[in-house]
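Example complex used in Figure S2.
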Amino acid sequence: MSEYLFYIVAAITVTTAVYLIFEKNPVFGALYLIQTMVSLAVLYILLEAQFVAAVQIIVYAGAIMVLFLFVIMLLNLDIKEEARNALPFQRIPAILMGIALFTVICIVIRSKLLQGKQDQYTTAYVQSIGNTKLIGNLLFTDYLLPFEITSILLFVAAIGAIMLAKRKL
Amino acid sequence: MITITHYLVLSAILFTVGVIGVLIRRNAIIIFMCIELMLNAVNLSFVACAHYLNSMQGQLFVFFTMTVAAAEAAVGLAIIVAVFRNKETVNIDDINIMKW
Amino acid sequence: MLDLVALILLFPLIGTAVNGLAGKRMRKETVGYIACGAIGLSFLVSILVFCGLLLLPPEGRLFEKHLFVWIESGSFRSLAALQVDPLSTVMILTVSGVGFLIHVYSIGYMHHDKGYHRYFCYLNLFTFSMLLLVLSNNFLLMFIGWEAVGLCSYLLIGFWFEKKSASNAAKKAFVVNRVGDFGFALGVMLIFLIFHSIDFTEVFSAASHGNFETGNFAITMITLLLFMGATGKSAQIPLYTWLPDAMEGPTPVSALIHAATMVTAGVYMIARCNVLYMLSPFTMTVVASIGAATALFAASIGLVQNDIKRVLAYSTISQLGYMFLACGVGAFTAGVFHLMTHAFFKALLFLGAGSVIHALSGEQDIRKMGALKSHIPTTYKTFLVGTIAIAGIPPFAGFFSKDEILLEAFVRGNFIYWSIGAIAALFTAFYMFRLLFMTFYGESRVDHHTMEHLHESPGNMTLPLIALAGLSFVGGFLGIPGASAINHFLSPVFGGHTHAEIAGTELAGHSGHHGAWLPYLMMVVSTAIAIAGIFLAYQMYIKKPDLPKKLTDRFRFIHKLLLNKYYVDEIYDALFVNPTKKISVKILWKGVDVRIIDGSVNGIARLVGGLSNVLRLLQTGYIRNYAFYIVVGCIFIVVLAVFGK
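Predicted assembly (914 residues):
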């Protein structure tokens, strides 16, 4: 059951991603991306990362993509604004290069170069405590410093965005 | 049986699609969305690895990635708005000033 | 008092700095006062140092003032240290004293020149360099002074650089001097190689303590190379050609540099190195021969020249020849004595000539002068004193020094040296009085326009003339035969055996038939020669003014030869200058410089430019393009990471 589910969701994800890069209208592009993210959230649930899936939908599909849509509509871009194409000859090499990149990544995956170590958080163990509780514990104990640093990062980003958006400094 | 390889290949496909999008699109906002797609592809492989290695670290890293993505979205979109204000365009081929 | 010796150098240096840096914004009077004051103070300190030296016992009259270590590299060590001994004291007194008078004179002479402060800056720098040359206690520091006076000479000959002839003369002086300096530098290097030191005291004591037998090849080479430097600086055959051309500079400069001081540097240097020269009879013969030849050669050219300053220039060359003759026969004292008296009367003559030129608004041709006696009386009187002094009439200064040289040439050298010297003395008396008669006597050939402006020079020009005339008159008494003060004073430097008197007695001892009456006979003979020269000039230019014309017609070839200075300049041009120029232009410039050097430089630039043009295509400014490169780079890195092992 979950096997089929994976293939279906994976197909939707890839399709919407491909649609995204060939879509002329940015608003539709944003909608495709939202769909991609929702599909990814489904895959996260399949991977038993419920909390991540929830955050994926709330933060990515909700906040960030709304921000995108907001900017697109703010700028009121029409569909034909991509009129000028300075590098038409780059299209095919770019796709070829993308395929090459994919091949290389697959080779890396198959080569088993990247090996991980088994940890203690087995499915049973996680379920006994609860995914969200476990993440919260870890974030506020072992990962407290990175967590605080991310708050500074967001703070800086907020200030930066304000400074950039202001007309007169 | 779905193995980690399935997820990693899916992640690779999404990443590659994102790369191609960056390379062939000229709309700055779409390029930006492609970058988000690439970040999501990486997130997928994080979570997949975490699951198959019985680890929590992958999931935690996703949070940090999301934070970076959020910050990036805020700043990046602000830049796009600022550029649009000056140039009346978001076509990056019209903004070819990145040379001496 | 001897400790003050560094001040002698410091004052002119301060003068140079002040006038050079701020002279443009100061009033002319201030510039002049600073320059003269600097040299005047220097002169006063020199007198103090002289007195300090006199207080020491004669054997201990050597004082070294260590300033700082200049270069220290391996076994090579050069100190910036000054040396005060009788020889350098004579030199500093002459240089600063004559220099001071000429500075004062320059205030009047250069008053209307727009390069006033530049002139005084150079003049002070020159005095500094010359004093450094004579005060240094090692060869390297001396070489610095040697080069610096050459530089100042170049700057001052080309002082009126707008004039093509002046800048050419400056270049000529510089290049010709360079030939000599090359020899000098090689000589200094060789000294270091042989003696492992360049310190005067060490080198000379090593040389005099019998480590080298007489005629040692290395010593001969050293002395010859040093002498090569001397021929350049002191205008001896074959490198004398620059000096007559140097008269393009302002006349006080000719007086100071090209007559009184700088050109005597060669004589000083040989006198300083007397220990080395005494070890090499061959070099001594060369020095004496070249000196004698130059004395006669230059004097003969001087007979027919018509430019007042050129006559004096050739006279200078000739007198320098005398000094080298004296050094060459081992009579260093006589050479230095003549150097000093020559400084007095030649400076006087040049300044007098400058005064004449000044009075005649720049006219230098003696054919356009005449009968100036009553118009510029002070100049005339002082010029007369100078002329008598150089001609060698007792009791003026030139008589004693020249007579001593002739005597020494006869006693220590041979009859040929003496006869050449005597003929040159005859010529000297003749051309100097010819100059005097043509300038101050006879009919006036001055044109009307100039005649209207005819005026005696101002006080600050005539006073130095009078002072120098006084020195020219009394200067000789320092070296009266038999009771020579200067001989006595200089004897620690040259060793007791170089005394003229002792030489005379030695000779008397060796060959009894000459005896003690020889010096007196010599005096009579040389006075007679001088009077003969004067009489000849009087006959030709006062009594029978048409006689020179007849003689010229009669001996046209010789006259032309002399007038054109034996065509030496032309010969040098044909032999050295033009081939060098041709090689320079054809091979070095058009070939080496344009093709190889410029070609390689431009070629590299063009190669880089071409490559950059290709590489520039990569830098489009399109972000997508850059992103593409990033992707290519990523793939490359990953491939390298996976398959690279």
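The longest strand of chain C covers residues 63-73. Residues 2-494+517-543 of chain C form one domain.
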